[in-house]
Design brief:
6 strands, six-stranded mixed β-sheet, Nucleotidyltransferase, domain 5
């Protein structure tokens, strides 16, 4: 039915997916440093539909984590998903999205806000924090992307973090709209 795609290739079927499983991760070699995102999007039966591995320039690890989620949510939207089960290995991001932790960094607030806006476009979203070993594929994609040369070579800045965001199971948070 569906086959796995190489990192960076998009699944282009017009068939709408009702429910998707997403594994998302961000990585930074330094904090901030060269950063990348990794996303694995699968059908409800765990068939991999798409893998994304992108270098996002100089970012903090937390900005990379949010950027990966943004990219994943945008792709899920483009695929026509109504429901999402999302798995991240960043407890901080999951807890900030649930409201359990405050977002203290002014650089992360716009990224968190964009994630929440995108999540509102789905009927149901579940985000779960999982151990890194349960997010290994997305972790590998993010680390590979961080090791690649930066697309811009620009130093870290708030503008770069926002532009990267626009380009591109121990606790659980559920949204039903």
């Amino acid at each position: 039915m569906f086959s796995a795609r190489a990192a960076g290739e998009y699944f282009t079927s017009t068939v709408e997916m009702n429910k998707l499983i997403i594994y998302a991760d961000g990585a930074s070699r330094g904090n901030p440093g060269p950063a990348g995102i990794g996303v694995v999007i699968a059908a409800d039966d765990d068939t991999v539909l798409e893998e994304i591995s992108e270098n996002i320039g100089q970012q903090t690890n937390n900005a990379a984590e949010y950027t990966a989620l943004i990219k994943a949510l945008e792709r899920a939207q483009a695929l026509g998903a109504a429901e999402l089960d999302i798995y991240v290995d960043s407890e901080l991001v999951e807890r900030q999205l649930s409201g359990a932790y405050k977002v203290k960094s002014p650089n992360l607030r716009p990224l968190r806000d964009k994630v929440l806006r995108l999540m509102n476009g789905f009927d149901k979203v579940s985000i779960s924090h999982v151990r890194r070993c349960h997010n290994a594929r997305a972790d590998r994609l993010a680390k590979q992307a961080a090791a690649k040369e930066s697309p811009t070579g620009d130093p870290p800045s708030e503008a770069n973090i926002e532009s990267a965001a626009n380009r591109n199971a121990t606790s659980q948070l559920n949204f039903e709209l």
